Amino acid sequence: xxxxxxxxxxxxxxxxxxxxxxxxxxxxxxxxxxxxxxxxxxxxxxxxxxxxxxxxxxxxxxxxxxxxxxxxxxxxxxxxxxxxxxxxxxxxxxxxxxxxxxxxxxxxxxxxxxxxxxxxxxxxxxxxxxxxxxxxxxxxxxxxxxxxxxxxxxxxxxxxxxxxxxxxxxxxxxxxxxxxxxxxxxxxxxxxxxxxxxxxxxxxxxxxxxxxxxxxxxxxxxxxxxxxxxxxxxxxxxxxxxxxxxxxxxxxxxxxxxxxxxxxxxxxxxx
Length: 271
What we know:
Distance between the termini: 32 Å
Low-confidence stretches: none
CATH topology: Rossmann fold
Largest sheet: 7 strands, parallel
Number of domains: 1
Mean pLDDT: 95
Strand content: 5-15%
CATH architecture: 3-Layer(aba) Sandwich
Helix content: 40-55%
């Protein structure tokens, strides 16, 4: 697959990226794409064994990557992550916040407070912590790209289940817009993106959870079946979008909702 050629200021070469959720799905594909372009990649996730596998695959083809196990919803762990990445690679210029979960396919009345809160912590609080930890270093370098993985669900009509997921992405959108405003004029941009209807571990989890439910929760299987019939969007489209956004042509693209090219879901009005 032909990919856009990324770039960045000459004095910051080689670039370094922090990719959360790098142990599976879209995060893995984005990490490998970045590494294929000579970008050093800090692989972040909860499962060290999966991160080690991705790092080994990258280094096997002469890329540079290292695993940094971390719970991105833990402030102390993210502070330690910043120190560890800095010691290993130096300050990064790219953040890809791909860690996330869907939660339970349940109504508010039937939902678990623990699961509800965990969904918001991972999907919204996690990107906040990671951005907060690394943004000052990016500003000091005068150039950077922040990508927060959102969802078309944040722009869609309200679901009748999984309130935490939809809310977490709406909140992430607003957070990213404010972050972009605070970063204006620094050379660092911040955008959200919809990775498409991808068949990843999250997709499998949604299918398994919806299949176990009755009533409203089982309704998510209609979306599952639609994606399965279509084959879903390849995660490589997200990687292509990220690489494209590293080019100088997008130095002023910030605070936007980005869409993959020719995705199954047509772009929706945002702001």
